[in-house]
Amino acid sequence: MNFVTQLLHLVGSGAVAYISARNIRDSRTRPNTLAAFQLAESGSVPFLTSLSERAAAEGDSWLAQMLALHAADERRHGNIFAQALKQWDKEVIDFKSLPKPAENKGEKPKRSPFFAAYFDGYDAEFFKPDKIEWPVFMASTYILELDASTDFARMANVLPDDDLRCRNLKKGMLSIASDETRHAAYLYEAMERRFSAREVENLVDEWRTRKVNALLAMVGNFVKGGGNPNLVKDGVPVDVSGENSSELKAA
Ligand SMILES: [Fe+2]
Ligand SMILES: [Fe+2]
Predict the structure, then answer these.
(1) Structural domains in the chain, sorted by start
(2) pLDDT attached to residue 2
(3) How far is the CA of 226 from the centre of ligand 2 (A)?
(4) What span, in angstroms and rounded, lies between the C-alpha atoms of 218 and 220?
């Protein structure tokens, strides 16, 4: 990574840390933030599971096992956020009730500015688990997991301690942060098992640069006032001290 990229990385990460800390601390924006995390974490499970099966079919049982564990962790992370939302009597909206893209005036679903910039040059077809190239998957996911671990820990630490629901969420998010560190570590090892030290360095450099550009695109969109869609609806109230919060307590 060159010096300018390094500087921009710090600026971009600082800005995103500020935005995400603000969104999770503010009780008005918190539900939507938690819903976005729930969808992102749970949404990765089928992809990781298919990749695990592909690795097994290709004879890499080590990678297959790591990916299966990764999928199980992400499922748990999705549940932690779902449980947290329930504490605030919210749940993720039912997407089946929304108009399908075809009925939606023929508009294509928009990619987030972040992912459009991060995966610039790759079309959606490339991201099928049977198509994606291993070095692209490993390096792009390594960078995201590495940064997610610090981002989740930072967000956990801005939650107020005087509210039981926030304390539950904080505990859950800190456990997620430590899983993300483990994910980054196995992905780095996966690259080392397949590629030379120089190739690993180049891959990490390329995806760090892409992440910086993606962060800046996201911050630019935020500054322009590009809001997030509403992802939550009112749910069934739960007793936060009761057994329903076991997932968060156990985390
Ligand atoms: Fe996760
Ligand atoms: Fe992860």
Answers:
(1) 3-250 (1.20.910)
(2) 72
(3) 26
(4) 5
